Structure formats: structure tokens, C-alpha cells
Amino acid sequence: METVEVKPASRGKEYLKSWIPYSIKRYWAYLAVTIVGLVLPWITINGNHIFLLNFDQKKLEFAGIAFDMQELYLMPFLLMLLFLGIFALTAIGGRAWCGWLCPQTIFRVIYRDLIETKILGMRKRISNKQKDPDMSLAVNQIKRVVAILIWSSLSLLVAANFMWYFVPPEDFFAYLANPREHMVLIGFIVGLALFLIVDVIFIKEDFCVYICPYSRVQSVLYDKDTIMAIYDPHRGGDIYSGHGNDRAKQFTKQKDLLVTTPSAECTTCESCVTVCPTHIDIRKGLQLECINCLECVDACTKVMGALGKPSLVRWSSEKETIAQEGKTDYWRSKTIMYFVALTLVLITLLVMGSKKETMLLNIDKTTRPYKILEDGKTVENDYLMLITNTDAKAHDFYIEIVGNKNIKITRPTEPFHMSAGAKKKTVVVLETKEILSKDANKDTPIPVVIKAFAVDDKSKITTTEETVFVYPSATSLKQ
């Protein structure tokens, strides 16, 4: 039986038919992030948003639970989740956040690849990101104005979407109906939109390279098992001499400026260079500017795949590709510790969030220490009380003194009604006719515990606050 030899080029074409570029996967990720970002502010659970830091009403809504500003002890845990999550993602997948989830990258792709290239045709093809549109042509000047107008409209939408996480959408549009009364909100929207226009159109990827602080700390989080877009010098040859990653150089022997040995597979087609949005050459090794968008991996896969060979640039680790010390170890001590910390913070957040108080009480002593009535025996102390009903329904509240029968409340004397989320500030007056201290020269502070509770649900909706009752000296009473 005669065997038929399959040529490498034929194998490459078959492989490319079933291959899904990383750029397509990124576009789906961008779409998912965009949908979540736009839809999330509109989702409510029991009337509360998934996430809303409402400065107008001074409360935080998280996972359908409303927290008063006095309960913002949860915010540090949310920030820890954010930063630990990004650190863990970086340790495992490099700057995957930058290339796959960062709004800056998504905005640049929308403007450069969609508006400038696909819609207006200012760029000939997406694969060449090194050459800017020829602005000497009058038609391109007109198209640039159109592109700026399109992006300006989108920037206003993005700015409004951002504000929805601080102003509820249902209030946001009501405020826009009366712009003169909400100029601060209008100023935030216009200012943020102007920043996005300057950033996306003029600063471009320089924001990622020079401004974003994340690029400066990424190298601290990397190790030899961190996966990133990485060039294989063993197969492709060492393209540059004296440039790039010194750690990568120790594993290679070829130091020529360009590939000269027959065994080197790099064709120096420069496809991985022309497609890079941050204008680097991945063949120089690990660089600060790389955002792990994997455009270079797609470019090299197309070229080498047509030749029936695997890509010279892969999403891999230095351990696996350069040092060749075995497979990448994803579950190493560093990443395990990150996930342990994330789990502990998440559990703490859930436990503290589940124990949300249904009322808040704050009692402060007034500047007057005490008042002695005309009978010479009765002593009054005044306090300023702030009570907040953080429950989802209205209640009647009342206060009483716990553990001290010699001191009584003379104001307020009746329960007071409070609607859901309402706050009430009132004066509380305590008095005593008993002799609480016989000190002749000094006033005596007496510890007092004041209990506030909902009359209709005293067992569940209750809280206490400690303060002091100042009793005058015997000399002051005589005077």
C-alpha cells in the first residue's frame, strides 16, 4: 500500500482552519465586560443595587444590602478583594488584566480597531498598529473629525455609566432633567468625558507605559512560572544582541543582530512587531510595555502555521519556554497564598455583611456638663442623639436606660416613628434626684448605658450606646 506524505504547509492550513485567534477571544471578553458594566447598575435586589456607593444619600449598597456610612468598615475588604485579585491574576497570567479586562485597552480597541479601521477605513488593516493614518490626505482629516465626534459621544456614555455606580440610574436621569440644580454632576460627566477623549485619542498606549502605576509593580509580581507572551529563542534564534531580558539571554547562544543560522526558524517577517499596540518587539524578551494582549502570538501563529510549524511566540512561562525546566507550575506557594488570602477576606466580608445592623445609634454629650434645677436636688444632663433606621421597613423606636434605676429619661418620653433608611437627630435629657456622689470638690462621671430599640421588634432591632452622666460636686449643689 502506497503512503502519501502530508506536506508541512498542508498540515499548517488544516491547523489554521480550526484555530481560534486570541484576538477573537479578547473581543468576546471585551463584550462581556461592557455588558456587565452597563447592566450592573440597573440590577436591584429588594430595592438595593448590586454595587452603589451613593454619596448623595450617604450609603453603600452591596449585593442587595444597604449599608449606612457608619458601616463603611466593609470598604477596606472590598478594596483588598480588588487588589489581591489583580495581584493573583498577575502572578499567574502576567498583565492579563491589562490586555483582557482593562477599560483603557477596551477603549483603545474600540477607537483604533473599530472606529478608525473598520468603520472609517483610516487604517488599511488592524494587523499594522505601527503606522498611523496619513493625515496629509484631506479625506483622512475629515474622517478624523468624524472619529473624534463618534468617540466623544461614546465618552459621554462611558462617563454617565461610571457615575451610575455613585448616583442611582433612576436618580441620575431625574437630575439631568434639572441640570442647573446639579452642576456638580454635569461637571463630573463632562470632565470625565474630556479625559477619555484626550486619553484614548492623543495619549493612547503611552498611558499604559508611562502613566499607569500597575506597569511599574508588575515586575515585582512576576516569577519564572508567570505565563506571558514569550518568544522561544531556542527555535527562533536570538534575534538581537545586547537587548532585552538578560535572564533570557543566558539560555541562548546566538548573539547576532539577525538570524543567520539555518536551524533558526524565525523568518524575520516582523509580523509580531507591526501588530503590537505598545510598539515593542517581543523577541527582545520580557518588557515593561507588554500588556499580554497576545496579538503577537496570533501574528506568529498565522505565519508559522502556514509553514506547518507551531508559533514561536506563545502564552507560556520562562520556565517552560526559555529555561526548559518542565511544565509551568500554576499552583505554587505564591499563588496558593494569594487564593488563601482572597478566601479569608471574602469569608470575612460575607460574615460581616450578613451581620448588618438594622439600626445605628450615636449619642454625644453636649457642651454643658450638667444643669441643677431650682430645688437644688434635681440634676439634668443633655445629650445629642442621632439614630438611623437601616432596616428595609418603618418602625417605632424608643430608648431606655439599662442597669441604673437612679437615672431617668425625661426627654423623649414617647416612641417616635421612623421610615426605612430615615435618620433622626434629637436632644435626650437624663435626670436624677438621688445623691450619686458625695465628693465635695470634683464632679463625678457616672457610666450610663442607653438602649434604643424598635417597639414592634425589640428582640431583633436593638442597640446600646455607652456614655457618662456628670454628677456635680457637693459644693456645686450647695451653691
Task: Describe what you observe in this structure.
The protein has two domains: 1-42 and 94-325, no CATH class; 359-478, Immunoglobulin-like (Sandwich), CATH 2.60.40.10. The chain is of the alpha+beta class and 479 residues long. The protein has helices at 8-18, 22-39, 75-93, 96-100, 103-119, 138-163, 169-176, 183-203, 206-211, 214-221, 233-236, 246-249, 271-274, 295-306, 318-321, 333-354, 474-478, and strands spanning 44-45, 48-49, 51-54, 59-62, 65-68, 228-231, 313-316, 359-365, 371-372, 379-389, 395-402, 408-411, 416-418, 423-432, 444-454, 462-471. Helix 6 (138-163) crosses helix 8 (183-203). A hairpin with a 2-residue loop joins strand 4 (59-62) and strand 5 (65-68). It starts with 7 loop residues before the first helix and ends with a helix.
The overall average pLDDT, rounded, is 85
Number of helices: 17
Estimate the helix proportion, in percent: 40-55%
The total domain count is 2
Outline type: elongated
What is the distance, rounded to the nearest whole angstrom, between the alpha carbons of the first and last residues?
Answer: 125 Å
Secondary-structure-derived class: alpha+beta
Gyration radius, in Å: 33 Å
Strand runs, count: 16
Largest sheet: 5 strands, antiparallel
Strand content: 15-25%
Low-confidence stretches: 1-6, 242-257
